[in-house]
Design brief:
2 domains, 4-stranded antiparallel β-sheet, alpha+beta, elongated, Outer membrane efflux proteins (OEP), 10 helices
Length: about 425
Protein backbone atom coordinates (compact mmCIF):
# COMPACT_ATOMS: atom_id res chain seq x y z
CA UNK A 1 0.00 0.00 0.00
CA UNK A 2 1.36 3.39 -0.91
CA UNK A 3 2.05 5.84 1.92
CA UNK A 4 -0.87 8.20 2.32
CA UNK A 5 -0.18 11.91 1.84
CA UNK A 6 -1.26 12.89 5.36
CA UNK A 7 1.02 10.34 6.99
CA UNK A 8 3.93 11.47 4.82
CA UNK A 9 3.35 15.16 5.57
CA UNK A 10 3.10 14.58 9.30
CA UNK A 11 6.19 12.42 9.27
CA UNK A 12 8.14 15.12 7.50
CA UNK A 13 6.85 17.74 9.93
CA UNK A 14 7.87 15.66 12.93
CA UNK A 15 11.41 15.21 11.61
CA UNK A 16 13.92 17.80 12.74
CA UNK A 17 15.90 18.17 9.56
CA UNK A 18 19.24 20.01 9.63
CA UNK A 19 18.77 23.74 9.20
CA UNK A 20 21.04 26.66 8.46
CA UNK A 21 18.65 29.20 9.95
CA UNK A 22 18.82 31.28 13.10
CA UNK A 23 19.26 29.40 16.35
CA UNK A 24 18.23 30.32 19.89
CA UNK A 25 21.63 31.75 20.79
CA UNK A 26 21.55 34.05 17.77
CA UNK A 27 18.09 35.26 18.77
CA UNK A 28 19.25 35.89 22.33
CA UNK A 29 22.27 37.93 21.26
CA UNK A 30 20.03 40.05 19.03
CA UNK A 31 17.60 40.54 21.91
CA UNK A 32 20.40 41.37 24.34
CA UNK A 33 21.49 44.18 22.05
CA UNK A 34 18.08 45.47 20.98
CA UNK A 35 15.42 44.61 23.57
CA UNK A 36 13.89 47.84 24.93
CA UNK A 37 12.49 46.16 28.04
CA UNK A 38 15.96 45.22 29.30
CA UNK A 39 17.33 48.62 28.28
CA UNK A 40 14.58 50.32 30.27
CA UNK A 41 15.41 48.21 33.32
CA UNK A 42 19.07 49.17 32.98
CA UNK A 43 18.27 52.88 32.68
CA UNK A 44 16.00 52.68 35.73
CA UNK A 45 18.76 50.92 37.67
CA UNK A 46 21.29 53.63 36.80
CA UNK A 47 18.83 56.42 37.59
CA UNK A 48 18.04 54.92 40.99
CA UNK A 49 21.74 54.50 41.71
CA UNK A 50 22.20 58.25 41.34
CA UNK A 51 20.05 58.64 44.44
CA UNK A 52 22.96 57.28 46.50
CA UNK A 53 25.30 60.01 45.26
CA UNK A 54 22.67 62.66 45.88
CA UNK A 55 22.01 61.45 49.43
CA UNK A 56 25.74 61.26 50.15
CA UNK A 57 26.27 64.75 48.75
CA UNK A 58 24.15 66.22 51.56
CA UNK A 59 26.72 64.90 54.07
CA UNK A 60 29.68 66.45 52.25
CA UNK A 61 30.90 70.08 52.41
CA UNK A 62 28.70 72.64 50.66
CA UNK A 63 30.31 75.75 49.18
CA UNK A 64 28.31 78.77 48.06
CA UNK A 65 29.40 82.14 46.72
CA UNK A 66 27.47 85.34 46.16
CA UNK A 67 28.09 88.83 44.88
CA UNK A 68 25.76 91.83 45.20
CA UNK A 69 25.88 95.31 43.64
CA UNK A 70 23.40 97.97 44.81
CA UNK A 71 22.75 101.66 44.10
CA UNK A 72 21.00 104.18 46.32
CA UNK A 73 19.51 107.34 44.77
CA UNK A 74 19.64 110.45 47.03
CA UNK A 75 18.18 113.19 44.77
CA UNK A 76 19.79 115.84 42.53
CA UNK A 77 21.92 117.40 45.25
CA UNK A 78 23.12 114.29 46.96
CA UNK A 79 23.40 112.12 43.88
CA UNK A 80 23.58 108.41 44.36
CA UNK A 81 25.87 105.95 46.08
CA UNK A 82 26.81 102.43 45.21
CA UNK A 83 27.97 99.42 47.19
CA UNK A 84 29.37 96.01 46.38
CA UNK A 85 29.56 92.89 48.51
CA UNK A 86 31.24 89.51 47.95
CA UNK A 87 30.50 86.55 50.24
CA UNK A 88 31.65 82.94 50.37
CA UNK A 89 30.23 80.25 52.62
CA UNK A 90 31.48 76.76 53.48
CA UNK A 91 29.11 74.57 55.48
CA UNK A 92 29.43 71.02 56.72
CA UNK A 93 26.88 68.77 58.39
CA UNK A 94 28.19 67.57 61.73
CA UNK A 95 25.18 65.75 63.07
CA UNK A 96 21.95 65.01 61.20
CA UNK A 97 20.48 61.55 61.71
CA UNK A 98 17.90 62.01 58.96
CA UNK A 99 20.58 62.47 56.29
CA UNK A 100 22.43 59.34 57.41
CA UNK A 101 19.19 57.36 57.36
CA UNK A 102 18.29 58.71 53.92
CA UNK A 103 21.68 57.60 52.62
CA UNK A 104 21.02 54.07 53.89
CA UNK A 105 17.55 54.15 52.31
CA UNK A 106 19.08 55.23 48.99
CA UNK A 107 21.53 52.31 49.15
CA UNK A 108 18.69 49.86 49.78
CA UNK A 109 16.62 51.34 46.95
CA UNK A 110 19.60 51.05 44.61
CA UNK A 111 20.16 47.44 45.67
CA UNK A 112 16.50 46.69 45.00
CA UNK A 113 16.77 48.10 41.50
CA UNK A 114 19.94 46.08 40.88
CA UNK A 115 17.97 42.96 41.73
CA UNK A 116 15.13 43.99 39.44
CA UNK A 117 17.61 44.42 36.63
CA UNK A 118 18.91 40.91 37.28
CA UNK A 119 15.32 39.70 37.18
CA UNK A 120 14.82 41.44 33.84
CA UNK A 121 18.02 39.89 32.51
CA UNK A 122 16.86 36.41 33.51
CA UNK A 123 13.39 37.11 32.19
CA UNK A 124 14.95 37.94 28.82
CA UNK A 125 16.18 34.33 28.57
CA UNK A 126 12.62 33.14 29.09
CA UNK A 127 11.03 35.70 26.78
CA UNK A 128 13.39 34.89 23.93
CA UNK A 129 13.01 31.13 24.39
CA UNK A 130 9.22 31.42 24.69
CA UNK A 131 8.97 33.50 21.52
CA UNK A 132 11.42 31.23 19.69
CA UNK A 133 9.55 28.04 20.51
CA UNK A 134 6.30 29.86 19.91
CA UNK A 135 7.39 30.22 16.29
CA UNK A 136 8.40 26.56 16.09
CA UNK A 137 5.09 25.45 17.58
CA UNK A 138 3.14 27.67 15.19
CA UNK A 139 5.14 26.31 12.26
CA UNK A 140 4.21 22.77 13.27
CA UNK A 141 0.59 23.79 13.72
CA UNK A 142 0.53 25.21 10.19
CA UNK A 143 2.15 22.07 8.79
CA UNK A 144 -0.41 19.88 10.50
CA UNK A 145 -3.24 22.15 9.41
CA UNK A 146 -2.13 21.97 5.79
CA UNK A 147 -1.72 18.21 5.97
CA UNK A 148 -5.13 17.96 7.62
CA UNK A 149 -6.69 20.13 4.92
CA UNK A 150 -5.08 18.10 2.15
CA UNK A 151 -6.18 14.82 3.70
CA UNK A 152 -9.79 16.03 3.99
CA UNK A 153 -9.61 17.32 0.42
CA UNK A 154 -8.54 13.89 -0.80
CA UNK A 155 -11.25 12.26 1.28
CA UNK A 156 -13.83 14.67 -0.16
CA UNK A 157 -12.71 14.01 -3.74
CA UNK A 158 -12.72 10.27 -3.13
CA UNK A 159 -16.21 10.41 -1.63
CA UNK A 160 -17.45 12.43 -4.57
CA UNK A 161 -16.04 9.90 -7.04
CA UNK A 162 -17.51 6.98 -5.10
CA UNK A 163 -20.89 8.69 -5.06
CA UNK A 164 -20.79 9.25 -8.80
CA UNK A 165 -20.24 5.55 -9.43
CA UNK A 166 -22.85 4.56 -6.87
CA UNK A 167 -20.49 3.21 -4.19
CA UNK A 168 -21.46 5.68 -1.45
CA UNK A 169 -24.29 7.94 -0.37
CA UNK A 170 -24.49 11.68 -0.89
CA UNK A 171 -24.29 12.03 2.90
CA UNK A 172 -20.64 10.96 2.80
CA UNK A 173 -19.90 13.66 0.24
CA UNK A 174 -21.54 16.38 2.32
CA UNK A 175 -19.82 15.22 5.47
CA UNK A 176 -16.38 15.09 3.85
CA UNK A 177 -16.90 18.52 2.29
CA UNK A 178 -17.86 20.00 5.68
CA UNK A 179 -14.67 18.66 7.25
CA UNK A 180 -12.65 19.91 4.29
CA UNK A 181 -14.04 23.45 4.50
CA UNK A 182 -13.46 23.56 8.26
CA UNK A 183 -9.88 22.41 7.70
CA UNK A 184 -9.31 25.24 5.23
CA UNK A 185 -10.42 27.71 7.88
CA UNK A 186 -8.03 26.14 10.39
CA UNK A 187 -5.16 26.51 7.94
CA UNK A 188 -5.86 30.22 7.56
CA UNK A 189 -5.97 30.64 11.34
CA UNK A 190 -2.72 28.69 11.72
CA UNK A 191 -1.02 30.93 9.17
CA UNK A 192 -2.15 34.04 11.02
CA UNK A 193 -0.93 32.57 14.30
CA UNK A 194 2.49 31.88 12.76
CA UNK A 195 2.74 35.41 11.42
CA UNK A 196 1.98 36.80 14.86
CA UNK A 197 4.47 34.43 16.52
CA UNK A 198 7.17 35.68 14.17
CA UNK A 199 6.30 39.26 15.04
CA UNK A 200 6.48 38.40 18.75
CA UNK A 201 10.08 37.26 18.33
CA UNK A 202 10.89 40.28 16.16
CA UNK A 203 9.49 42.53 18.90
CA UNK A 204 12.17 41.22 21.26
CA UNK A 205 15.14 40.88 18.89
CA UNK A 206 14.48 43.97 16.80
CA UNK A 207 15.22 41.97 13.64
CA UNK A 208 12.98 40.16 11.14
CA UNK A 209 12.44 36.51 12.00
CA UNK A 210 13.74 34.14 9.33
CA UNK A 211 14.10 30.37 9.31
CA UNK A 212 14.67 28.91 12.76
CA UNK A 213 16.44 25.73 13.74
CA UNK A 214 14.21 23.06 15.28
CA UNK A 215 14.48 20.69 18.19
CA UNK A 216 16.11 17.41 17.37
CA UNK A 217 14.14 14.21 17.88
CA UNK A 218 16.17 12.66 20.69
CA UNK A 219 15.51 15.08 23.52
CA UNK A 220 17.03 14.15 26.90
CA UNK A 221 14.06 13.55 29.18
CA UNK A 222 15.86 14.36 32.42
CA UNK A 223 14.19 15.45 35.68
CA UNK A 224 15.35 18.61 37.47
CA UNK A 225 18.58 18.38 39.42
CA UNK A 226 18.34 18.17 42.36
CA UNK A 227 15.26 15.96 42.10
CA UNK A 228 13.72 17.46 45.24
CA UNK A 229 11.10 20.19 45.09
CA UNK A 230 11.87 21.45 48.60
CA UNK A 231 15.47 22.11 47.60
CA UNK A 232 14.28 24.18 44.67
CA UNK A 233 11.93 26.18 46.90
CA UNK A 234 14.73 26.82 49.38
CA UNK A 235 17.01 27.97 46.57
CA UNK A 236 14.33 30.26 45.14
CA UNK A 237 13.68 31.91 48.49
CA UNK A 238 17.37 32.71 48.74
CA UNK A 239 18.20 33.85 45.21
CA UNK A 240 15.02 34.88 43.37
CA UNK A 241 15.87 38.47 42.32
CA UNK A 242 12.29 39.75 42.48
CA UNK A 243 11.99 38.54 46.07
CA UNK A 244 15.39 40.02 46.96
CA UNK A 245 14.27 43.33 45.47
CA UNK A 246 11.20 43.31 47.72
CA UNK A 247 13.39 42.63 50.75
CA UNK A 248 15.55 45.61 49.85
CA UNK A 249 12.42 47.72 49.47
CA UNK A 250 11.43 46.81 53.02
CA UNK A 251 14.90 47.80 54.25
CA UNK A 252 14.64 51.12 52.42
CA UNK A 253 11.25 51.73 54.03
CA UNK A 254 12.70 50.99 57.49
CA UNK A 255 15.46 53.54 56.92
CA UNK A 256 12.87 56.06 55.75
CA UNK A 257 11.05 55.63 59.07
CA UNK A 258 14.30 56.36 60.89
CA UNK A 259 14.82 59.46 58.74
CA UNK A 260 11.30 60.68 59.46
CA UNK A 261 11.68 60.17 63.22
CA UNK A 262 14.98 62.06 63.09
CA UNK A 263 12.92 65.11 62.23
CA UNK A 264 12.32 65.43 65.99
CA UNK A 265 16.06 65.48 66.77
CA UNK A 266 18.44 68.45 66.83
CA UNK A 267 21.01 68.94 64.07
CA UNK A 268 24.46 70.48 64.18
CA UNK A 269 26.30 72.08 61.30
CA UNK A 270 29.63 73.86 61.01
CA UNK A 271 30.17 76.86 58.79
CA UNK A 272 32.80 79.32 57.59
CA UNK A 273 31.72 82.62 56.04
CA UNK A 274 34.02 85.08 54.32
CA UNK A 275 32.83 88.56 53.26
CA UNK A 276 34.29 91.66 51.69
CA UNK A 277 32.62 94.86 50.46
CA UNK A 278 33.07 98.40 49.20
CA UNK A 279 30.91 101.55 48.73
CA UNK A 280 31.33 104.93 46.98
CA UNK A 281 29.42 108.15 46.22
CA UNK A 282 28.82 109.82 42.84
CA UNK A 283 29.21 113.36 44.29
CA UNK A 284 32.62 112.71 45.76
CA UNK A 285 34.92 110.53 43.75
CA UNK A 286 37.31 110.35 46.70
CA UNK A 287 34.67 109.14 49.11
CA UNK A 288 35.32 105.48 48.45
CA UNK A 289 34.99 103.22 51.44
CA UNK A 290 36.08 99.64 51.66
CA UNK A 291 34.89 97.29 54.38
CA UNK A 292 37.64 95.13 55.72
CA UNK A 293 37.24 91.46 54.87
CA UNK A 294 35.70 89.35 57.59
CA UNK A 295 35.73 85.63 58.32
CA UNK A 296 33.21 83.96 60.59
CA UNK A 297 33.58 80.42 61.89
CA UNK A 298 30.96 78.74 63.99
CA UNK A 299 28.63 75.87 64.82
CA UNK A 300 24.89 76.02 64.43
CA UNK A 301 22.58 73.97 66.62
CA UNK A 302 19.05 73.65 65.31
CA UNK A 303 16.41 72.24 67.64
CA UNK A 304 13.00 71.51 66.08
CA UNK A 305 10.21 72.46 68.43
CA UNK A 306 6.96 72.43 66.50
CA UNK A 307 6.24 72.03 62.77
CA UNK A 308 2.47 71.87 62.78
CA UNK A 309 2.46 68.06 63.08
CA UNK A 310 4.22 67.54 59.74
CA UNK A 311 7.08 65.53 61.25
CA UNK A 312 4.79 63.08 63.00
CA UNK A 313 2.72 62.80 59.83
CA UNK A 314 5.84 61.88 57.87
CA UNK A 315 6.61 59.21 60.47
CA UNK A 316 3.15 57.69 60.08
CA UNK A 317 3.40 57.88 56.30
CA UNK A 318 6.75 56.06 56.36
CA UNK A 319 5.32 53.35 58.60
CA UNK A 320 2.42 52.80 56.21
CA UNK A 321 4.85 52.58 53.31
CA UNK A 322 6.93 50.05 55.25
CA UNK A 323 3.82 47.98 55.91
CA UNK A 324 2.93 48.13 52.21
CA UNK A 325 6.44 47.01 51.24
CA UNK A 326 6.26 44.16 53.76
CA UNK A 327 2.95 42.95 52.32
CA UNK A 328 4.39 43.16 48.79
CA UNK A 329 7.36 41.08 49.91
CA UNK A 330 5.11 38.43 51.44
CA UNK A 331 2.99 38.34 48.29
CA UNK A 332 6.12 37.89 46.19
CA UNK A 333 7.40 35.16 48.51
CA UNK A 334 4.18 33.17 48.16
CA UNK A 335 4.25 33.63 44.38
CA UNK A 336 7.83 32.40 44.22
CA UNK A 337 6.96 29.28 46.21
CA UNK A 338 3.94 28.59 44.03
CA UNK A 339 5.80 29.11 40.75
CA UNK A 340 8.75 27.01 41.86
CA UNK A 341 6.55 24.07 42.80
CA UNK A 342 4.47 24.48 39.64
CA UNK A 343 7.43 24.49 37.26
CA UNK A 344 9.14 21.65 39.10
CA UNK A 345 6.01 19.51 38.85
CA UNK A 346 5.49 20.59 35.24
CA UNK A 347 8.95 19.34 34.30
CA UNK A 348 8.29 16.01 36.00
CA UNK A 349 4.89 15.71 34.33
CA UNK A 350 6.34 16.88 31.03
CA UNK A 351 8.49 13.78 30.75
CA UNK A 352 5.43 11.56 30.82
CA UNK A 353 3.49 13.95 28.58
CA UNK A 354 6.11 13.85 25.84
CA UNK A 355 6.34 10.07 25.96
CA UNK A 356 2.56 9.72 25.96
CA UNK A 357 2.12 12.19 23.10
CA UNK A 358 4.72 10.36 21.02
CA UNK A 359 2.96 7.03 21.61
CA UNK A 360 -0.33 8.70 20.67
CA UNK A 361 1.16 9.80 17.33
CA UNK A 362 2.37 6.28 16.56
CA UNK A 363 -1.01 4.81 17.43
CA UNK A 364 -2.85 7.51 15.50
CA UNK A 365 -0.89 6.81 12.32
CA UNK A 366 -1.60 3.09 12.54
CA UNK A 367 -5.25 3.72 13.38
CA UNK A 368 -5.69 5.98 10.35
CA UNK A 369 -4.14 3.43 8.00
CA UNK A 370 -6.34 0.66 9.42
CA UNK A 371 -9.48 2.82 9.28
CA UNK A 372 -8.84 3.76 5.67
CA UNK A 373 -8.27 0.15 4.77
CA UNK A 374 -11.52 -0.77 6.51
CA UNK A 375 -13.36 1.94 4.64
CA UNK A 376 -12.12 0.53 1.34
CA UNK A 377 -13.68 -2.84 2.14
CA UNK A 378 -16.80 -1.41 3.76
CA UNK A 379 -16.12 -2.20 7.43
CA UNK A 380 -15.51 1.45 8.42
CA UNK A 381 -17.62 4.53 7.79
CA UNK A 382 -16.63 7.89 6.37
CA UNK A 383 -17.14 9.39 9.80
CA UNK A 384 -14.58 7.00 11.26
CA UNK A 385 -12.01 8.00 8.64
CA UNK A 386 -12.54 11.71 9.23
CA UNK A 387 -12.28 11.27 12.98
CA UNK A 388 -9.09 9.25 12.59
CA UNK A 389 -7.54 12.08 10.57
CA UNK A 390 -8.50 14.58 13.26
CA UNK A 391 -7.14 12.40 16.06
CA UNK A 392 -3.80 11.97 14.32
CA UNK A 393 -3.45 15.69 13.66
CA UNK A 394 -4.37 16.49 17.26
CA UNK A 395 -1.81 13.97 18.51
CA UNK A 396 0.93 15.50 16.36
CA UNK A 397 0.05 18.94 17.66
CA UNK A 398 0.10 17.75 21.27
CA UNK A 399 3.47 16.09 20.74
CA UNK A 400 4.97 19.27 19.30
CA UNK A 401 3.63 21.42 22.12
CA UNK A 402 4.71 18.96 24.82
CA UNK A 403 8.29 18.88 23.54
CA UNK A 404 8.61 22.64 23.37
CA UNK A 405 6.89 23.25 26.70
CA UNK A 406 9.12 20.71 28.44
CA UNK A 407 12.18 22.72 27.44
CA UNK A 408 10.55 25.99 28.48
CA UNK A 409 9.44 24.64 31.86
CA UNK A 410 13.00 23.68 32.74
CA UNK A 411 14.13 27.20 31.93
CA UNK A 412 11.22 28.72 33.86
CA UNK A 413 12.18 26.64 36.88
CA UNK A 414 15.72 28.01 36.75
CA UNK A 415 14.42 31.57 36.37
CA UNK A 416 12.09 31.23 39.35
CA UNK A 417 14.98 29.90 41.41
CA UNK A 418 17.01 32.93 40.31
CA UNK A 419 19.74 30.79 38.75
CA UNK A 420 19.03 31.11 35.01
CA UNK A 421 22.05 32.21 33.00
CA UNK A 422 23.52 32.12 29.52
CA UNK A 423 24.64 28.50 29.96
CA UNK A 424 20.99 27.45 30.05
CA UNK A 425 20.42 29.08 26.66
CA UNK A 426 23.55 27.39 25.33
CA UNK A 427 22.32 24.04 26.64
CA UNK A 428 18.96 24.45 24.92
CA UNK A 429 20.70 25.66 21.77
CA UNK A 430 22.68 22.44 21.67
CA UNK A 431 19.38 20.58 21.27
CA UNK A 432 18.64 22.37 18.01
CA UNK A 433 19.68 21.29 14.56
Amino acid sequence: MRLKLLTLALALAAMSLPSHGTDLLDAYHDARANDPVLSQADATRLATGEGVDQARALLLPQIDGSMSLSQTNGGNLIGHSRSRRINGTLSQTVLDFSKYANLKAAHSASDAQDELYQAAAQELYVRVATAYFGVLTSQDELTYAKANEDAFRQQYEQSDQRFKVGLSAITDVYQAKAYYEAAKSQTIAAQNALNDAREALTQITGKPTGDLKKLRDDLPMEPPAPADQDSWVKQALQTNPNLLAQKNNVEAAEHSITAARAGHLPTISAGVTYGKGASWSETDANSRFRDPSSTTIGLTLNVPIFSGGATQSRVRQSIYQRDSATDAMESERRLVVRNTLNYYRSVIAGIAQVESAKASVDSGQKALEATRAGFEVGTQTMTNVLLAIQILTSSESSYSQARHQFILNKLLLKETAGTADLKDIETINALLQ
